[in-house]
Batch of 2 targets.
Target 1
Amino acid sequence: MLSRFSSRRHFDDLSEQEILALAISSEEDDARIYRMFAAKLREEFPASAAVFDGMAEEEDGHRSRLIEMFRSRFGEVIPLIRREHVAGYYARQPVWLEPDLGLDRIRAVAHQMEEAAGKFYLAAAQRTTDARTRDLLGALAQAEAGHEKRADALEAQHLTDDVREAEDAGARRQFILTWVQPGLAGLMDGSVSTLAPIFATAFATENTMTTFQVGLAASVGAGISMGFTEAAHDDGVISGRGSPWKRGLASGVMTALGGLGHALPYLIPHFWTATTVAMIVVFVELWAIAWIQNRFMETPFLRATFQVVLGGALVFAAGALIGGG
């Protein structure tokens, strides 16, 4: 209702000429998006890039047919009507503008684009009483359904099982390099490096609030430091590790969480209860780090356990001895 008083036209108020112009601009936009996807994927995932090249060509073909239809009915001048000009038309989030859009996300977005367009045109055709407009929208719905089938055929042509497996493995590797590796480094740093100051403060003061404040400061400070260090030391261009800001975010957040895990128990006012809970949290943190190393970094579990648990135990002992002395 409010859309009728906005600067946008409502879809129900568009003429057949305007609906057809909107369809033409939408097909043109989709072709550009698919070409952008292809350009993003071409270096690392050439087979998937070929799929999106084919989908862009399909959109070009449909746009040409729509232009021919427009010329035959309304002449040479096509009104410039785009999605953002129309209320009640399906909207798309500009996720394709993200600089590091992953392969799986691109595939999902492309499927959503075709599915949303097909459903919209079909629903619009069912609500239309004018016979010619109904035929037009029905044809557009069929075209979008055809796009989905064509996309499946292009994937079958270019993406064999071996190629898809190789590309999926590459995407998994990129996920590990961009998110898991810096996040794991941050979790290890936050969990281990804050053990000494937190437990040294705990045993030196036996004051839970003071210990919590020291733990909070150490965790937040370490998170900020690790985040900026990760983002600044490698822009990802040569190493291929992905966006520095994504890596910095993963490292910074996980560093802070690693320290906060055994700082938060000191909100418990009873010292030995808080210390016991903190020790249990440390145990869980160290085993979680060992599991992540084994699961994503393919480090043998026993070796990961030995490295993490031994290192954590030594830092904890150092903090306890310093604080207890």
Target 2
Amino acid sequence: MNSILDSRREMLTRRALFGRSAVGLGSAALASLLMEDGARPVVAADNASPSKPTGGRFGGLPGVPHFAPKAKRVIYLLQNGAPTHVDLYDHKPQMEKWRGTQIPDDIQKGQRLSTMTQGQTARPVLPAITKFEKHGESGATVCDFLPNIASIADECCFIKSMHTEAVNHAPAITFFLTGSEMAGRPSLGAWTTYGLGSDTQDLPSFVVMTSRDKEASCGQIFYDYYWGSGFLPTKFQGVKFRGSGDPVLYISNPEGMSRETRRDLLDDLAKLNELNLAEFGDPEIATRIAQYELAYRMQSSVPELTDFSQEPKHILEMYGPDVTKQGTFAYNCLMARRLAERGVRHVQLFHAGWDQHRNLNTQLKIQCYDTDAPSAALVKDLKQRGMLDDTLVIWGGEFGRTPFLQGAIAETKTWGRDHHPYCFTIWMAGGGIKAGMTYGESDDFCYNVAKDPVHVHDFQATVLHLLGIDHERLTFKFQGRQFRLTDVHGKVVTPILA
């Protein structure tokens, strides 16, 4: 008998040894993903109402949150293409006397620019093409192209001293969302759901939606790695809701298949996957099982989620005329509110069209019109439902735009601004942010930070802090080192916390 066992041990391959030794870990992972109180996988009843979070926290790391959170969820309105802070929020009337003249060398300082203006010798100052007024008790300056955002000025904290290193779109967005300019690391939404888990089993904990300007004026691409899980298990990657047709592919049953048959099929498929999980301990197999179960539950939750028929007329009107058009920014903003109230942890909206190199005089106003009302409506809607206090809303792009003109000052039809990473504006509202505040300052040309700089890593550390996470303690070991969203940088911007 011993000789037989010895023979089997000698035949055991290295791969089989590692596969079998991971059975305990794999089983534990499967249990945490699928089981509740030691029972069979939890499946929402067909008649269960998904209009409220299912209750309780599912998943997440022990000991996280590290301290009491101010925000339970995040809605990030990322304005892809980089809105011009010079024309929208950062009012510098003294720039007018420099109109058309070369921006001073001691302001530009020979800093790196994109290839579109790096070799441009004439860099004439272009003051704001909009008009500014102060709004609310806070006196925040917002341009006349954004009247609805101006109306919520006292709910917002405007950070006018953001800065970054990246000068091109994809690296800059990747840096904001993952902490690195190179693709491959987990996104902000993946990190938060990894640490905090989910508040619902009927919908993904991290949802992404995209939209773009109707004129398709810029060619920004929405790369999947913007919402990827990087080296984290793929369970934590964002689920993209499509802008047309079924929000998620393959949710509906094939023709001729009943829901009961689908249930039986998934049960049998889960058993087969459990055998593989027990054999190899690969956490991606556990993820696959969990995603099949989530897809089954979404057959009930998604149709209800996307049905706006019960929304009051005044709410729909507040979001603007495009609110019922799937794939628009207005539609996505209302969807974001509906996702948030159903327990989704992180909602990421991307809206492209702000890359105004040669069409500033025409496209800026159109872009503002399309995004202004929905952005403000989201904040107002959350507030009237009592959700703004624990929902962090973020509005901003990957960088700003140059205070000098790209092109010639005489060619007004082709006015534009290039990418500008050295100082720009974003705003945040709700979720523990101090309302009615402006933080940081730029210089007299909106070019460099003059006071209270906020780096991308500081922004990330602050968002995690509001969710109750110490950014230095939320780590994942990969390739021999502990990684975190903020890399080895970042500090919480405490003055903007309520």
